[in-house]
Write a structure and sequence with these properties.
Blueprint (H helix, E strand, L loop, with lengths): L3 E9 L2 H8 L14 H7 L5 E7 L5 E8 L2 H10 L7 E8 L24
Antiparallel strand pairs: 1-3, 1-4, 2-3
């Protein structure tokens, strides 16, 4: 698989969907334990794509960083997770340049377009 990076902008399909997604597990029926970050990572890796990071606040939109072969594979994974169309709607953007302080690599170089200023 050729790994590409994608930034996704998500919005909840409704306020009820937002409440369902954001209800702490211990208040669900039946109650569950909260997942650790490691458990979240394992659960966020699917057959078609993997979510690496997520940012969610009080605004209408939230954001996720995915790796996959294509935009279609990200959507396919969200559908496999039973999220897309049921709880969220998603706009997927391929990002040709990805740099991260978390990765903190001495080997990975900043990417630039090979011809001009567009990839």
């Amino acid at each position: 698989m050729t790994e590409k990076h994608f930034m996704c902008i998500h919005t909840f399909v409704s306020e009820a969907a937002r409440r369902e997604y954001l209800t702490p597990p211990e208040f669900r029926n039946p109650p569950e334990e909260r997942a650790t970050e490691r458990q979240w990572v394992e659960a966020s890796s699917g057959e078609f794509a993997t979510c690496l990071q997520t940012w969610l606040g009080n605004s209408e939109f939230f954001f996720c960083h995915w790796v996959a072969e294509s935009e279609d594979m990200v959507i396919k994974q969200l559908e496999a997770f039973e999220l897309e169309g049921r709880l969220i709607n998603t706009m997927v953007h391929e990002t040709q340049q990805f740099m991260s302080a978390f990765r903190n690599s001495d080997d990975i170089k900043r990417q630039y377009p090979s011809d001009g200023y567009m990839w």
